[in-house]
Amino acid sequence: MVININLLDSNVLKKVPVQVSVRNCEIKQEFHVTIPQFIVISITIGIIALISAGTAIDSYISRNASSSSDMGRIPQSLLAFSLTMNLKKLMKSSRRNSSLGAVNGVRCLSLLWIVLAHTYGFGHRQGLARLSHAKTYMDDIFFQIITNSWVSVDTFFMLGGLLVATSNLKIMESTGGKINYFSRLVHRVWRLIPPLAATVGIMFILPLIGSGPLWADMAGQKVLNCERNWWQVLLPINTWVDFSSMCLLHTWYVASDIHFYCVAPLVLGVLYRWPAAGFALLFFITAICAMVIGLLTIIYNLPPTVIFFSPDIALTKRTANLVYFRPYPHLGAYCVGLVLGYLLWKYHKWTLSKMCQTVGWATSATSCLAVLFATYSWSRGTSADPVEGVLYAVLHRTVWAAGVAWITEFVGILMITLVLSILFHLAFEAPFLKLEQIWFPESSKPTEVKKPLDNTHAT
């Protein structure tokens, strides 16, 4: 049948200068469950059973409050899976007191930006209408918001460094500069592994729930990558492998974040005891990473950044593999977050004059806009000047993170931005801040220190 379809397509399109091939052929076959799929389904059934038992116990206790004190450890453990109890916590939208009120708004806006860009860059082309109009998109300078959206990820790295710094420095302040490095690292991994494992499990059972003409193109290779390399997600080391073979491509961010988190407490320890040495260490780390990016750009003749819709697909993939999906290009943004977290912790009562605020806002806006729109000519096919290209490749992520860091610290000055932050927090962010409690309802509470940053939520 495949040969007949090939012959039919070739005859129909013989006057059109295109090559035709059949990429996939589905045949009727018996339903088959592999061993990994059986394991995933079994674990899922087990979790559903725990949720049912926990919900039943919760319902019984709510009607017999006097019996709650007589529960043993096993019923208490099952109660942690109660659907009703966790839904109440999930839907509770109370907001912790924090001087970092803008973080949730910035985080949500960046998330929406990423979704918008991925809709253009990673959607299936056959599902788009008027695709021929795409060739004119690059002429619109404002389309750089889509094509150069790569920097939005560095916003999250900066925020990650900020929140890690504030939470760890509070602990160090209450313990005289000491911190249980192993305990913090285990807690971090303990929070991340269950959702990662659940997502990998979904990829295993995906072939059982879908089919169709485009199914193999959309999901086939992704499922195959996870069947081969699922362990890279859980270790996590998938930020160091070829992105075409990654299981769950987006988890490269999680892997990089864990890498940074392993280093952050050590750097913060130096910053807490010897601030000058700590700042020098952060500058040294950022400079080394910048040097690596510059050398790779020069040696492999890479563009300044990943160019969306570039005609040279091989060069785009090489840039993504050697630079974008690696940790070192984003470590500078993370270091900016660590610096900002230290400044907010150390100088929380510090106020700037109106002149300094105006200069800061102008510099921040100019820097971010320059980073965002500097790629306009490159996106239209113009080759970057060698020196200009290397400088942009080395600096643009850290400069962007520094610009957003200023906005994050002083965004409360503008009332409209504060209102938007609160609205986005209530509509999008607040429910998801409670997701941890579904898996970890008894997670450790933050250390109480009488500072304005006492209840800052760290991720």
UniProtKB/TrEMBL annotation:
It comes from the Eukaryota. Residues 102-432 form the Acyltransferase domain. GO terms for molecular function: acyltransferase activity, transferring groups other than amino-acyl groups. It holds the Pfam family Acyl_transf_3. Keywords: Membrane, Transmembrane, Transmembrane helix. The chain crosses the membrane at residues 38-61, 99-121, 141-169, 189-209, 252-272, 279-300, 331-347, 359-379, 399-428. Coiled coil: none annotated. This is O-acyltransferase like protein. The lineage of its organism: Eukaryota, Metazoa, Ecdysozoa, Arthropoda, Chelicerata.
